[in-house]
Amino acid sequence: ACNRGTGEPVVGLITKTDTNPFFVTMKVGAQSAAATAGVDLQTFAGKVDGDNEAQVLAIENLISFGAVGFMITPNDSKAIVPAIDRAHEAGMLVIALDTPVEPAEAADATFATDNYEAGRLIGQWAKAKFATEGKDARIAMLDLNANQVSVDVQRDQGFLEGFGIDVADKGRIGDESDPRIAGHDVTDGNEEGGRTAMENLLQKDPSINLVYTINEPAAAGAYQALKAAGREREVTIVSVDGGCPGVDNVAGGVIGATSMQFPIKMAELGVAAIAEYAKTGVKPQNTAGKDFVDTGVQLITDQPQAGVEAKDSAWGKQNCWG
Amino acid sequence: MTTPVLQAKGLTKRYGRVVAIDGSDLELLPGEILAVIGDNGAGKSSLIKALSGALVPDSGEILLDGRPVHFRNPMEARAAGIETVYQTLAVAPGLDIADNLFLGREQRRPGPLGSIFRMLDRKRMREEAARHMSELGVATLQNIGQPVESLSGGQRQAVAVARSAAFGSKVVILDEPTAALGVKEGNRVLQLIRDVRDRGLPVILISHNMPHVFEIADRIHIQRLGRRIAVITPGSHSMSDAVAIMTGAAPPPEAP
Amino acid sequence: MTTPVLQAKGLTKRYGRVVAIDGSDLELLPGEILAVIGDNGAGKSSLIKALSGALVPDSGEILLDGRPVHFRNPMEARAAGIETVYQTLAVAPGLDIADNLFLGREQRRPGPLGSIFRMLDRKRMREEAARHMSELGVATLQNIGQPVESLSGGQRQAVAVARSAAFGSKVVILDEPTAALGVKEGNRVLQLIRDVRDRGLPVILISHNMPHVFEIADRIHIQRLGRRIAVITPGSHSMSDAVAIMTGAAPPPEAP
Amino acid sequence: MTATADFEVRRHDSFGLRLQHLLHGNPVLGPLAVLVVAIVAFSIVNARFFSAANLSLVLLQVTVIATLALGQTLIILTAGIDLSAGAIAVFSSILMALFATDAGVPAPLALLLGFACGTAMGAINGFLVTRIKLPPFIVTLGTLTIFFSLNSVVSNSETVRGADMPGLMTWTGEAIPIGDFRLSYGSIIMLLLFGFFAYALSWTAWGKHVYATGDDVEAARLAGIRTGRVLFSVYTTAGLLYAVAGWILIGRLASASPNVGTEYNLDSITAVVLGGTSLFGGRGGVIGTLIGALIVGVFRNGLQLAGVEVVWQGFAIGLLVLIAVSLDQWIRKVRS
Amino acid sequence: MTATADFEVRRHDSFGLRLQHLLHGNPVLGPLAVLVVAIVAFSIVNARFFSAANLSLVLLQVTVIATLALGQTLIILTAGIDLSAGAIAVFSSILMALFATDAGVPAPLALLLGFACGTAMGAINGFLVTRIKLPPFIVTLGTLTIFFSLNSVVSNSETVRGADMPGLMTWTGEAIPIGDFRLSYGSIIMLLLFGFFAYALSWTAWGKHVYATGDDVEAARLAGIRTGRVLFSVYTTAGLLYAVAGWILIGRLASASPNVGTEYNLDSITAVVLGGTSLFGGRGGVIGTLIGALIVGVFRNGLQLAGVEVVWQGFAIGLLVLIAVSLDQWIRKVRS
Ligand SMILES: Nc1ncnc2c1ncn2[C@@H]1O[C@H](COP(=O)(O)OP(=O)(O)OP(=O)(O)O)[C@@H](O)[C@H]1O
Ligand SMILES: Nc1ncnc2c1ncn2[C@@H]1O[C@H](COP(=O)(O)OP(=O)(O)OP(=O)(O)O)[C@@H](O)[C@H]1O
Ligand SMILES: [Mg+2]
Ligand SMILES: [Mg+2]
User: Fold this and answer.
1) Residues on chain D touching E144 (C-beta within 8 angstroms)
2) How far apart, in whole angstroms, are the C-alpha atoms of residue D81 and residue B228?
3) B120 touches chain E (CB under 8 A)
4) Which segment, A58-72, B212-226, C6-20, E293-307, is predicted with the most confidence on average?
5) Which of B137, C216, C235, E75 is most solvent-facing, going by the fewest CB within 10 Å?
6) Which contiguous run of DSSP H or E holds residue E324?
7) Which member of E138, E311, E326 has the closest CB to residue D153?
8) A103 preceded by cis ω (within 30°)?
9) Could you give the CA distance from residue C151 to residue C133 in angstroms, rounded to a whole number?
């Protein structure tokens, strides 16, 4: 990425972290798109999830490089806005990827998964499955962390809405009073956190039979806890992501259903939009009816339920990322 | 009898199974040099630590000018005018000689620099420190700005002794102040102790050096197994008597 | 002339602006007790640290049995049979007396427990430690399992002295071993030094205690301002001569 | 006066002094008391807490951290600190998993290679500390970022699934049921390691040298201990222990994931400190660390069972940790 | 022999010894040399690095960390450590922002309230360290989780936008242009604070007491220093400094966000250690810390300009930190 001096316009990609496969995939997608579009891609990342300052720093560096624009998956949707404003003053095009900024208009465009929709799909699927089997649900909610970040909130609330539970404040996790919710815990979005959280919730309420997880690594961890307790057959796990290991887990019966997102598509669209802007000065348009460009969500499951559109894991295998 | 300046009654201190002081008494009369002698581990250091607030005894009473006092820490004893040189020296190894000498009593610059900006008068403190050290005959010191940790054993001890001699206002306590000192430097410290006494301050001197003790002490307190077993004077007993009593080879004389 | 067991030629050591040893020589003859005396800061400790590998001199040569040696650390000197008690004692404060005595030379259990499981023979080490300590006359020790940091100053010194006396195989070096010791314990250490000499080991003794030095030394090395300025014997010179030479009040005698 | 003195001495002898003797000789009793208090308290709040199943869960949950904290204890005993513990464990687990899957190396060999890598990473730390004489904090901070970065590169940030690995790799996650209590092989390995090092520290010359070096490195050197070697052995051993922790981690997660372990360093140090080992070196021991790790595990699990909200759990853990050390401090307070 | 000796001494005198004298008297020269080398190296790699605009960016980027590291230095000088530094800064920034917006308090008062809260949080640490006599590591670990948790609760995990705040709150982010160099008010405050504490540490009695306490707390106590008071003053002052860092943070991000600062503790400690202050207390100073913070900033920025890929940046930073301290070590190596 250091072919500076070629005269190609500089385009930035700022991801939340550089260790999460989702962002690694996004980066790979952006790199190949950049090669095609003939732009010089500079990548940056926060050190950990939530690291806003590293992203501000990255924007400052891009301004000092004279970049034409950049894509960002904001770690802190609100706090990043002043830095984006400064980039705008420098005439740059700013595209939010995966996570919108707040307010969404602060970025020129947002290419993202509709996370609320992603949650809603698995909620609907689970509702249909439990209805068919005639079971009453006892739900464990395995969230990301205590910070109520937007992705976490949207998936969680979307799932609950899809399942037909009153979510009270749509912007807050944990203010629901529905008795079907057995408990919440946080996982940091990894296997370890998923397992420990599941273990503890199972101790609290052994009758849990439906587990929502923030992402597939957390789902894999939760499955291990269930397996150790000998309950893996009776409990359904749903998740969001569509990473290849996650799809494998759908095929293997570990995860009942997952909502796949398309990071490569996000990155490709983003690079193309900035390249276009560099050439013609034209800014991208949002999907009709939404304040962002929806890159789509696809429910993946091998147990299709009536009324919920889904693809099977074989399709998933071909389209997964990471 | 005159009221003792400093008096201890029935002090006791235990560490787990170890009894460091076992109901020990002590009297320090005005203007005298009281030597405390005793075997290793007899409880001499523990006794004077109790007097200087460095340890809080389990029981017993300490009187200063006849009034009971309860020092909870060395600052309180110091505020009452008791200045102590501990066996472990209690110097800050990374600071230099002047800083150590004036630790806790730093001098500020005259004028607004001192009163408003609280600026230290480093130059004056260094000069005074050099004077104090050369008074003790420590002539080999090559650099007054050396950190104390790089000094020789004797030089370091000289720093601690100079501090107490310079600042004691009521009682000066010295725990083996000459142990690491050379012959000349040791003699200077003896002279310094006499000077302090001549200023009217009583001195408690712990030492294993019998010639020193017999040369300088007015009275000698003999400590054995955590207790005071005798008080003698250089006139009444010989050195070998003292050693015999101290080691238990001879019975202590009748209590005074 | 017999080859010296240990010999130093023209050793120099500087710390920044401070010159600790300034081209000093030293000879230790077989079976002798060599006392090293000198003012505080004369460079005595630095000199013996160079001999025992605790500091690497800037220049100069050290010969052991006539062969040049270059100790880079105390282990190498120790392996060559040179056992040293440092002025700073070099004990591990948190370990107990037995552990400190046997530090680096721990004894293992006999049989497979020792050879396979490398289990220490704690009981034996404790017993031996108690014996060594009582040989030094430290009778007030109440608990052999006490960590060394809780010992009195003299008790701690006794631990270090006992260690070197027990393990020296070629040369024993003692830096002010009696400074913190009581009269009785000090005399025991002198006796111990004689015992070591009688076992055929030469001893270097640094001390500020002139009566001790003149009582025990075969020859006396006088250090002044980082240099050896004279070597005398207790027969040839009196104590006051020695002190005068040491402090520069009298000129040193002609070089031997 | 004498009467008072006698009275006072006797009063102390009766209870305070005896308790103090006991605690003086057994510094782990402080943390142990804290652990017992915590268990009793949580059992009262939620009866389910004190069930065999739940207690075995707590043991399971602390196994990885405890193994890491064991290596950390060795290093802290020498007055060092290891910020790279978690990175080494995770990197080793990724390496052994990749060897056993992508590289197709036989499982036992893959395991050994993983252990060797952990040991080598510990040796790098040891080399930098003893040879270049850098402060342990900065050394392990540097290697932490290096190992994490290599970790991302080597693994491509992708999880290796346990299902794709040979059984040996995930064996540590299997458990022997003892009634309702499920004892995993990982926990057994961890407990054996603790036993081994408890022995090595107090009954072998190596252990004495570790304490002496941590207590006062200069004094130890003058006393003739090869402090460099001791330190190097400690860092290397710790590296091996972290690699074992990595293996246990694979068993626990049934996968090798490059994205775990960011909290492991602080957690392992916390366990060590709660267990009564001084960060200044030379004081403490491994049994305390095991108890310290269990204390944290009990807090986490107990708070969740007590139904404390997630936002307040951090608050409660912080408070409990402070209370725990205060209690320990109070127990061991020997009036100086 | 004499000839050799003379020669050796003279040789040392000529260059080695003189350099040593210089370095001996000025321990910051080591880190400073590292900083200069790094700046020169990065300027060669990418000419853009050594532009006024870019250098002012580096200064801007280290301002918050440097201010935190200033408080951290005070604490480390007393042989303590503060893991709650970042949490206090973030919590203070949230509080002052909320006071100034939701609570409608006038800006100057809101600022003072924020400072007061930071000071109070520092005082809590100080109280636990000096009164309950808990180890600083565990105290600040406990308060770290407590403050972060309170932080989430109070802020409702929501960012307060700078646009909604009175101008005083974000004033620290404004900059004075000096040619291409843009000096922000936050950086000016930071530099003034460093100057103030450099003075206080070496020219006032308080400074001497801080060093003496950190060097050997027992000796300092016996020498008559109220070590408890000194420690308490240090923790409290550090709390205030963190709150100021929080204010600067608001200016820098033009918002107050509860989700920043997780890395601040390690970063601030790194700056202190790179600056040559010993974690065992009593040795070092604040000017070194400023240089240490700049070193990290230069590395980060320079690597990016050099076009190093993100995955490899961690690797490179780790390596550079190790090289930096090795270089420093080599420079200050006084043959003992
Ligand atoms: N902190 C402690 N813990 C346990 N035992 C202690 C402690 N401090 C002192 N002791 C014990 O108390 C006894 C008296 O010690 P102290 O230091 O008062 O003796 P001393 O008379 O000053 O001896 P010396 O002449 O050797 O300095 C010794 O047996 C010592 O081991
Ligand atoms: N690490 C060091 N840094 C600087 N100066 C030092 C260092 N070590 C020793 N010195 C200086 O070297 C000189 C010789 O010290 P040394 O300890 O050898 O004296 P000594 O003869 O043993 O004195 P004493 O009888 O007081 O123990 C002293 O002036 C001392 O200040
Ligand atoms: Mg004593
Ligand atoms: Mg000496």
Assistant:
1) 318
2) 48
3) yes
4) B212-226
5) C235
6) helix E310-332
7) E311
8) yes
9) 13
Residues whose beta carbon lies within 6 Å of some atom of ligand 2:
B 140, 142, 146, 150-155, 180, 182; C 15, 18, 20, 38, 40-46, 87
Report the percentage of chain E scoring pLDDT > 90.
51
Residue A132 φ/ψ region, left for φ over 0, alpha for ψ in the -120 to 50 degree band, beta for the rest: alpha
Strand B33-38 and strand B203-206: the pairing is: parallel
Q: Does C72 touch chain E (CB under 8 A)?
A: no
Which tens digits make up the pLDDT trace of B8-53? Answer: 999 999 887 788 999 999 999 999 999 999 988 899 999 999 999 9
* Complex ipTM value: 0.85
Give the model's pLDDT for residue D5: 32
Q: How confident is the model at residue A75 (pLDDT cuts 50, 70, 90)?
A: confident
Asked if A45 lies within 8 A of E310 by C-beta distance, the reply is yes
Distance between CA C186 and CA B249 in Å, rounded?
Answer: 16
Are A186 and A193 a contacting pair, CB within 8 Å?
yes
Mean pLDDT, to the nearest integer, of A196-211?
A: 92
Hey, which chains touch C, using 3+ CB pairs under 8 Å? Answer: B, D, E
Mean pLDDT taken over chain C: 88
Q: In this structure, what DSSP letter does residue A106 have? A: G
Q: Give the DSSP H/E element, type plus range, for residue B88.
A: none
| Count of CB pairs separated by less than 8 Å, A with E | 93
Phi, psi of E240 (to 5 degrees): -65, -45
3-class DSSP string for E211-235: HHHHHCHHHHHHCCCCHHHHHHHHH
Which of E88, E138, E268, E319 should one mutate to test binding to chain D, selecting the residue with the greatest count of D CBs within 10 A? E138
Is residue D178 helix, strand or coil? Answer: strand
Q: For residue B169, give how far its alpha carbon lies from the nearest alpha carbon of chain E (Å).
A: 15
Q: Which of E213, E231, E218, E215 is nearest to E129 (CA)?
A: E231
Residues near C106 by Cβ (< 8 Å), separated by ≥ 6?
Answer: C120, C125, D205, D208
Name the more confident of A31 and E158.
A31
C-chain CB neighbours of B39 within 8 Å are 139-140, 154, 182, 184-185
CA C68 to each of CA C3, C46, C51, C63, C168: distance values in angstroms, whole numbers, following the listed order: 13, 19, 12, 4, 20
Q: Which of A137-141, D184-188, D305-309, E113-117 has the lowest mean pLDDT?
A: D305-309
Q: Tell me how far the alpha carbon of residue B43 lies from the centroid of ligand 1, in angstroms.
A: 6
- C-alpha dihedral over C19, C25, C26, C27, to 10 degrees? 170
| Min Cα separation A301/chain D (Å) | 19
Low-confidence spans in chain B with pLDDT less than 50 = 256
Which chain D residues are within 8 Å of E125, Cβ to Cβ?
none
At D2-35, the pLDDT tens digits run 333 333 333 344 465 566 556 556 778 888 988 9
* Three-class SS state of C122: helix
Q: Please state at what angle helix D52-77 crosses helix D185-203, rounded to 10 degrees.
A: 40
First CA to last CA across chain D, in angstroms?
A: 23
Residue E280 is classified by DSSP as T
Kindly state the helix (H) or strand (E) to which residue C60 belongs, with its residue range: strand C59-64
E2/C58 Cβ within 8 A: no
Distances (CA, A) of C195 to C35, C133, C207: 16, 15, 18
pLDDT in tens, C194-249: 988 888 889 999 999 999 999 999 999 999 999 999 999 999 999 999 999 988 88
Task: Report yes or no: D123 and D182 within 8 Å, Cβ to Cβ.
Answer: no
The torsion angles phi and psi of C19, rounded to 5 degrees, stand at -100, 110
Please, which pLDDT band fits residue D88 given cuts at 50, 70 and 90? very high
Distance from CA of B40 to the nearest CA of E (A): 22
